[in-house]
Structures are given as C-alpha cells and as structure tokens.
Amino acid sequence: MTTVEQFDVVVIGLGPAGACTAVEAARRGCRVLALDRKREPGKPVQCAEFVPAMIGAEARGFTDSVRQPIRAMMTFVESGTPDTQPDFPGHMLDRATFDSGLVAAAAQAGVDCRFGENVRSIGLDGCIELACGRRAAAPVVVGADGPRSAVGRRIGNVNRELLETRQITVALLKRHEATDIFLSAGIPGGYGWLFPKGEVAHVGAGVDSTHKARLKEIVAGLHAALAENGRVGTEILGRTGGAIPAGGMLKPWGALGDTLALLAGDAAGLTNPVTGAGIPAAVYSGRLAGETAAAWVAGNPAAGADYEDELRDVFQAALDRAVRRRRELTARHGSGAPASRADWRRGWIAYPEYWA
After folding, report:
1. Domain 4-46+95-160+247-321 matches domain 69-91+162-245 at the CATH topology level
2. Which one is predicted more confidently, 314 or 91?
C-alpha cells in the first residue's frame, strides 16, 4: 500500500489564494504541502491582470509585477460616447511575476510547493490521491483550485453560475491609462474590455456560459473595431480565457470526516459577478484561510464557522448586490426588450445608480 504523507495543511492550487493560504499557515508553525497542476507559477495566465488600487497594500513587496498604473475608467454603452470616471485608480499586473513572487514567499516560509501535480481524488476522509500515485493527508485541506474546485465538489459547495471569458493580447498603438469597458446587448450577461499594459493591451469579453459559443466572434468584432480606430494592432500576440464564478459566495467550509475543508478565492465564489475582479478577494481569503487552518490545527473547533463569518462580513453585501444587478440585466436581455441607458447604469459599477 502507498505510504500516506502526513502534513498539517494541504493546499490545492498555488494561485494567489493558495499561495497566501500556504504562507500564513506556515508562518504559524504548520507543515504545509501546496499542490498545483500547472508546471510553473502563474502560467499560462488566465486573467485580465487589472487590480484596483485597494490591493496596493496586499501587493506591497511585489512591485516588480506592476506594469503600468490605471487612473480612470471609460464606459461605452452600445458604442456611444464614453462616460469617463476620472478617479478609478488601479494597476495592471504581470500575473506570472505576481504569482511567482507569492510562491517564492511560500517556499521561503517553509511550504513544500509542488507543481505539475494533478489531484486524482479526494477521499471522504480528506485524503488526497495524486495522479502519480502518491497520497497525502492533513487535518486541514484548502481548495484554492478555481471556480470548478475539486475540494468544493467533494463537500457539495459548487459554483453553479459561471461566466465564460476569452481574451487576446495585441499591440497598443496609443498610450492609455484607463480601463475601457464595453456594455452591449451583443455581449449578453457580461461586458467587453480593453485593458492597457504598457506597449500591449488585453482585449476580451465575458458572457453568460449559455453564450460561450459566441465569444470568439464577439472578441474578434471588438478587436476589429479597435484596430480600425487605430488604437491597437491587428496581430494577435496571445490568447487566453476561462471561467469566472458569477453566483456569489458559497459556504466556504465543510467536513471530510475529521478533516476541515476550506475554500478560498474563486473556489469560494468570491469573484465579483459583474466585474469579474477576483485577485483582491483571493489574497484576502487566502490569508484568512491560512490563519484559520492554523487555528484548527491548534485545536479551535469553531475555526471553520469563524472563517465563514469573517468572509461574509467582508464580502457578502458587495457580492449580493453584484448578483442582483447581473440578474436584473440578464432578465432584461432574456425578455427580448432592449436594455435602456438607465438599465445599463444600474448594472455597472462606475455609475452611482449601481450603488443605490
């Protein structure tokens, strides 16, 4: 029989949520194993790479991952004259560099970080079996493994509403320090974007999963219009895409026998269903998950419930609002009636009506 490696905490996923979980647990004296199916941190990148200024404090120490500042947001409704919000600061990151920095911090803290490891199964007792045949177990298992989390599936807490995204990278022909947002009935359940990143730009769109087949056409049309206006180049330098949770926060913990299972980041449904923004929530929830894991190992039986309470205090109201706004617009599209400008303003974060 294969020997089961024993740890205090096993983290599945080494993106921002998983790496932050691992660091915090290790710094509190836990023996931590962190696994990721990718071959190296942050690659391939599946992210638009924009983060709001609020993550600045969280990203301190990884300033080499910032590629350019963002100072404003321009919102185009059905290709009309844009509404400009001049005070929407943030940063464009290089996610591969950002993730690598977080993983390096985890390794420095003593975490056993293993890449190229696929999880074959998670037992009802929390035991992890890897595709290579090795097995690992711990009092705490943390699912930081994205919107289709294997840990979440095992404890029955699954993201059932998803947005699907597609993004291309192209040359940016005119320097730009704003995020451009494109709202249109032709992009159902989501929006299009242009995010500048130094000499290149990300052009993409997210849609309700039922319209996934239209994504290629939608992004190609947006790219063609931007190229015709002389804003971006015609050559496609890179492609990416993926799923984003859009149904709001899940119950972020459960039990697998005597093992505490925690969910962090996308796995816990903490991504904003309107904007798709998830990095700040991943960092915050990851750090909190690491603290919670250490508390459980130290003998606190209420650690899981405390974790949920803290996440709900921080994220619940904003996520509930975003879910409502997204569903309102989706219902409008589904009715066949065109969305009015008032509908769009109520459905997008740059307008005061969204926050009313």
Report:
1. no
2. 314
pLDDT at 57 over 50: no
- Report how far Cα 187 is from the mean position of its chain's Cα atoms: 20
Residue 160 burial (10 A CB sphere; 0-12, 13-18, 19+): exposed
Supply 223's token pair.
Answer: 């790219």
CA dist., res. 324 & res. 319, Å (int): 9
Q: How confident is the model at residue 289 (pLDDT cuts 50, 70, 90)?
A: very high
Q: Is the pTM of this model over 0.85?
A: yes
pLDDT tens-digit series, residues 154-173 = 999 999 999 999 999 999 99
CATH number of 4-46+95-160+247-321: 3.50.50.60
Class of residue 336 by CB neighbours under 10 A (exposed 0-12, middle 13-18, buried 19+)? exposed
Homologous superfamily of domain range 69-91+162-245: D-Amino Acid Oxidase, subunit A, domain 2 (3.30.9.10)
Domain positions in the chain are: 4-46+95-160+247-321, 69-91+162-245
Amino acid at 171: A
Q: Which residue has the tokens 């096993």?
A: 10
CB atoms within 10 A of CB 352: 8
Classify residue 110 as exposed, middle or buried by CB count within 10 Å of its CB (0-12, 13-18, 19+). Answer: middle
